[in-house]
Structures are given as C-alpha cells and as structure tokens.
Amino acid sequence: DIQMTQSPSTLSASVGDRVTITCRASQSIVNWLAWYQQKPGKAPKLLIYKSSSLKSGVPSRFSGSGSGTEFTLTISSLQSDDFATYYCQQYNSYLWTFGQGTKVDIK
Amino acid sequence: QLQLQESGPGLVKPSETLSLTCTVSGGSISSSTYYWGWIRQPPGKGLEWIGSIDFSGSTSYNPALRGRGTLSVDTSNNKFSLKLSPVAAADTALYYCARRVTLQPFDYWGQGTLVTVSS
Known about the structure:
The complex is a heterodimer of chains A (107) and B (119). Chain A has strands spanning 4-7, 10-13, 19-25, 33-38, 45-49, 53-54, 62-67, 70-75, 85-90, 97-98, 102-106. Chain A is mainly beta. Chain B has 119 residues and is mainly beta. Chain B contains no helices and 11 strands. Chain B has strands at residues 3-7, 11-12, 18-25, 34-41, 48-54, 59-61, 69-74, 79-84, 93-101, 106-109, 113-117. Chain B is globular, with a radius of gyration of 13 Å. Chain A binds chain B through residues 1, 34, 36, 42-46, 49-50, 55, 87, 89, 91, 94-101, and chain B through 46-49, 52, 60, 62-63, 96, 98, 100, 104-107, 109-112.
C-alpha cells in the first residue's frame, strides 16, 4: 500500500496568512494527487487534482505543487471560510489512500 | 447538477450485514467514463476508501476490508450499493458514496450517512 503522510497535523493561522501543508507519499505517485477540504458535518470537497490543477469554481488562492513523493497545498491568503481540515489523496495505484488530515484553525 | 444520496439502516448489530445504497440523480450511472465508490470516516478520524465499481460491475476493494465488502450496481434504477459483512464496532463510521471520472479523483460526494455497529 502507498502511505500518505501529511504535516503538520494541526496548523494555527490568522486571516491573511500564507499557509502551506505538505503531503509525502511512501513511493512515487507521479502527479496523481488530490487535495480535499472538509468542514465539520460536511462531505469532503475536491480542491485540486493531478497535483496542481484547480477544480473549476475553487478560489485561486488555493494552489498545489509537487511530483513524485512530495506535494504541497498552499493557501496564499487565508480567509475565514478556509478554516477546515484538508486531506491529500493519491490515486496512482488501484488502492486509493488518504493522508491523515491537517486541521487549520484560528490562531 | 449531479447529486448522490446514501440510504440505509443507521444501526447494525455486530456480526450482521451493513447494507447501504447510493441513489444518483442528475446524471446517468451508466457512463463508461464514470466510477462509483464508497469512502468511510470513523467519528473524529480520517478518510478510508472502501471500494469502487463501474457501470459494468467491475470492482476494486480495499484489502484492509479482508474480503468483507461487496459492491453492486443497478443501472435500471441509477443506484449502486455496498454490503459489508460481518461487521464489528470498528466499522462504525460516516459512509459516503462518491463519483469519479477516469483518471480523476472523487469530484461528487453524497452528504454521508452514519452507521453505528452496536448490540
């Protein structure tokens, strides 16, 4: 199985901050990586696919980068609506796996 | 707009069978480029992919289920289903159904349904 490790597990930030979340894969997944945002009581929402492609309708302050085993999600200027938990997910192998999540809360 | 809705019992006894259905509206389940999946989330924890199925019934499963999961598709009624048996307390979770397109991650999700395994 491909293991996905996110860091940090929790991140405290303020509105307007630049925020970066890292996701590492236990083996190369090329660029088959997605990022989701999940708010309490809601289903995950797809933000980015294929490492850096922004899903239609997602604000441009979200961006993704990376390839192979190292990936990042960046929020250029954190907004109040962005306080949530973020998950990475690899879809390189048939066995899809998620990272453990990064909770972004208010400092 | 594609919509997915999970349905099924909210309480299942240990050693019995968990059965959930996902009803798809606003689009056809029969497209050859669509895959339909189940993902679960234990309370307060992360996401776990359970398995996926396409319109023809071709399936893939998470080996962590140890062969307990079965997915099926009902193209006549635009639905797909999950059966998990036997269940234990560790199967208590919020169960989501979702759709993906070939070479893409899950882009449409249901709202989720909580299943508790308890006697």
